[in-house]
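hi! just following up on the protien thing from before. the input was this:
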Amino acid sequence: MSGLYEVVGNKLTMRMHPGQLRAWDSERRFVGVVAGTQSGKTSWTGCWLWREIHRCGPGDYGFICPTFTLMELKALPEFRKFFEHTLRLGEYKATPVRRFTFSKDGAKRIFSQYTEAPDVPTQVFFGYADSPDSLESSTFKAAVLDEAGQKAFKRESWEAIQRRLAIHSGRALITTTPYFSGGWLRTEIYDRFRNGDPDVDFINFPSIMNPAFPREEFERAQATLPRWKFDLFYQGLFAKPAGLIYDCFEEERHTVQRFPIPSDWRRYVGMDFGGVNTAAVFFAEDPATRRLYAYREYKPAVHAGFRTAASHVPMLLLGEPGIPTAVGGSMSEDRWRYEYQRAGLPIRGPATPDVEIGIGRVYAAIKAGEVLFFDDLRGVLDEFSTYSRELDANGEVTDKIADKETFHRMDCIRYLLGFLKDGRNNQTRGPTAVGGRLGGMPGGMRR
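and the predicted 3d structure came back as:
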């Protein structure tokens, strides 16, 4: 026999390498397989899902990729090869919804516990994580998340998939090469596994564990690539890539466990505007050290739809002891600031229109230990680990920020810290939160 699987007569035989076998044997609910490129991840996902369907019975299942392009390139052909051509369990159709539906004969063969084909149809739905809203209308008994480490695979998508699995307490197999230093994949899978979460498993193996991967190619990559790139793409290890903008940020050094913030600490909020992408990051200042602590993030789900400034303000101020000093938006967004002021939250514009100056001020504050972040601000921490510059064809860092329009929390932090670190605005920071005014804005005024 050659390859991962083979059917002879009515018998399916699989030949798995040690990394695949380790994941196959895991009984935990969320199984993360983070491994090197071409290590046998995607080709094996169909085997895992086949067994999960056999175990869980008729119903709906999910197969999620970051984008349509990636699905069509590798995952879908591998799935169809196994389910449709090798096992002949049913048929895939792309319209009106991309799904694979088990035939009556296929259902009878996979569900050996039934004497006849079950009445409930069995289907595998294919979805795309760059559109979290598209994942909200299904109920899955199990799901595969392929290449979940890519930036297009959003935290919101992971959260939506967990909701789709909730009714059946369904399992999820998460397979990917790590494309950067972490994101939600690190915090929700690797960190939870490392901290002893009994629901989460984490399996790592290099490309060379796949017997079909040429050793000479592995050794060539090791000898010629930068260490971070080799670790990411061939070892399957989390590493900080070239171009990471806040490469000075380290969770171990720059995060703290949540603690009650005294009501008299001065409060600040950095904001990024938008009808559906409004975001905010809140900070409190320790009057003794003047260190800032990021304690809250605000970003409504995309599917919440368009919201006005008037509808955001009550939610932004909910639980706050007063009206925080607020800074946000670009230089050109005076209309948004006017709308928020009318709704009861005055907001100052940024200190400088230059993005790089703002980034430099944030970088300096982090490196100097002047700002710390509560370790449960998952969205902020995700963005810190993925906010990076594009690389050119030679792997050299360019000035362009990759996918800049998607990093709303980073913009919030840049607007606020860029303002507070501007020498002209030092007078806006004081030892207490009560009283005082910031250019006519109530600073910490009791409501």
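The first strand starts at residue 5 and ends at 8.
The chain has 14 helices and 22 strands.
cheers
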